[in-house]
Design goal:
Two copies of one chain form a homodimer. Chain A has 17 helices and two strands. With 323 residues, chain A is mostly helical. Chain A has a single domain, classed as Farnesyl Diphosphate Synthase, CATH 1.10.600. The interface between A and B is large, with 39 and 39 residues.
């Protein structure tokens, strides 16, 4: 059990039901996708997104049990996330994810496109059948943001003029929109007040940003083994994240290396050395901590419960991945 | 002006607004998709699907003008259709469509996956914002059916045991579900009775099936030039359609050729000769005519209007493509 999953104690039974449901939902209807589904939903995914939906559901339903619609929302959240990963891996030509080969590298582009489309389609369908127009709007916003984010990332490659604000916007699209909107949606299914709904959105938004900033730092500080994908892959592909953006403010020669896209021998090593010499990683850590703190503040409005505590602890856990 | 577009006279002005809107909606937000959008929405698409939505809208609103929501529904319909084409072309590795190169052959898999995802995402978002849960359900059913249909087609390749019923089911997923559900949705936006809504669904279903059967016949009887894609492409790739399925009932040796996937020299030519000798194409024509007639019958319930007449004429036009 990883530190993350022990935090999920209040919803551990819920997550097991979810894992079984997801495999069945996807695999049963289409044998051709069964292998992909096994691969996708069995591959050591941390299930952070559905865990948050379930924790928010329990924290807002309080003594009452969560409903089938809360569970379905958690499943939809994981389906949307997985669909976007499968298509991102085609777009980014990634061969590894979470330490296992990606769907497109294992089964080919054909199955990867189909599997992603099927997951998106199925999530739209389940979503519509939750019979709550506001929830449909929130999650369709997410699907739109994910597509925009992936396009944006391609456009900004090796663009050294990108600001920290633009980086945070891109990170919101990539990692925070799903957590923010699904947390709010879980609250709406529990019929919370509009004010509480906004706080749940705020929790998800800041948690998601902290999570993404930490992920971006780990790309510099971890080994390929720990990451389950090649280290430094962001930098190599020109995806400029917080540590680089902060480092560029101190080290102007970094810009030159990036703008020539590391074509000369030793460019990448030199860039890495400049980043490590700078305050880039430290400042990125501080930025992540700020967002983690803001996430926790948004929970003050909820009544105390085991689930609320777990949501708070998760914000600490995200930062603890750095040490 | 092709025969099809002259049938669209009652909604010709509407279709021009639609064409402009589609290019703007997709291209403006993402310059990277602008070229793809120009290509997709300018490439001689026949716009049959949005034309039907607009004609149904006018036929059901009668003397009143159609609303912005009717127009948006027509746009959503074309976006969903286009998104599915872009992804189908990746899956089928098709290089040509409507006589022009496909998005993936022109811009690569990366842009094709992104463009399709973005169109699906955008259509989900506009759909949710139509503020009609029943319409959301109908169209999310379509997105699900399209994904299922494409998977099904892959599973049934070179499967000679496939029945005409299974072929019609596959054709429904591929071509009829979108027309059927969007026609019904247009009626719902006009607040028609549940009975009329079902008739609109019936029109779309049978029209879509007739359309697909005719398309499948043209794959045998037309030249590559006329089709805008290589002729006989269905047969070669093992997609068994009405003419082949009927021909197999008469010519048992056809089965052998198909089951060995035309590996021996001359297999394809021999298969083609057997199909032409059989009643396969004639029987497929009769099947298409049956569905076109059933489509027209479902319109009896609507008050007479120019738009209803155009919907009826379109069923004839579909059959006329064969002569």
């Amino acid at each position: 059990m990883t530190p993350a999953t022990s935090l999920f104690a209040p919803v551990e039974a819920d997550l097991q039901i979810l894992a079984e449901n997801l495999k069945q939902l996807v695999g049963n209807r289409h044998p051709i996708l069964y292998a992909a589904a096994e691969h996708l939903f069995g591959a050591g995914g941390k299930r952070i997104r559905p865990a948050i939906v379930l924790l928010v559901s329990r924290a807002t339903m309080q003594e009452k049990d969560i409903t089938l619609r809360h569970r379905r929302l958690a499943e939809i959240t994981e389906m949307i996330h997985t669909a976007s990963l499968v298509h991102d891996d085609i777009v980014d030509e990634s061969d590894m994810r979470r330490g296992v080969p990606t769907v497109h590298s294992l089964f080919g582009n054909r199955i990867a496109v189909l599997a992603g489309d099927f997951l998106f389609a199925q999530s739209s369908w389940y979503l519509a059948n939750l019979n709550n127009l506001e929830v449909v709007k929130l999650l369709s916003e997410v699907i739109m943001d994910l597509a925009s984010g992936e396009i944006q990332q391609g456009l900004n490659c090796f663009d050294t003029s990108i600001s920290i604000e633009a980086y945070l916007q891109k990170s919101y699209y990539k990692a925070a929109t799903l957590i923010a909107n699904s947390s709010k949606a879980a609250g709406l299914l529990s019929e919370v007040s509009p004010e509480t709904a906004e706080h749940l959105y705020g929790y998800g938004r800041h948690f998601g940003l902290a999570f993404q900033i930490v992920d971006d730092i780990l790309d510099f500080t971890s080994s390929t083994d720990t990451l389950g994908k090649p280290a430094l892959s962001d930098l190599k592909s020109g995806n400029l994240t917080a540590p680089v953006l902060f480092a560029m403010e101190e080290k102007s020669s970094l810009e030159v290396l990036i703008e020539r896209e590391f074509v000369q021998e030793g460019d990448l090593e030199q860039a890495m050395a400049l980043i490590l010499e700078s305050q880039g990683i430290q400042r990125a850590r501080e930025l992540a901590a700020e967002h983690a703190n803001m996430a926790v503040e948004h929970l003050a409005n909820l009544p105390p419960s085991e689930s609320r505590q777990a949501l708070m602890d998760m914000a600490d856990y995200v930062l603890s991945r750095l040490y």
